[in-house]
Known about the structure:
The protein has helices at 9-24, 38-46, 55-61. It is an all-alpha fold. The two termini are 32 Å apart.
Amino acid sequence: MSNIGPEFSLSRDAYAARSKSLNRQGKGSRKLLPQLTDDQIDDLYQKQILGCHTPNALLNTM
């Protein structure tokens, strides 16, 4: 972060403090997504929710 000028140090400090505060409240970090079983994933492919059948299915797979 030394590439950024010193005029932004107050903003960086405020951002870091707010980020820490939100993390302590459980709001700042990403929640883990539920893990799917292999059977559930196979069902999604069979129902064409995942795969390359449609543009939406392809996006869901990504």
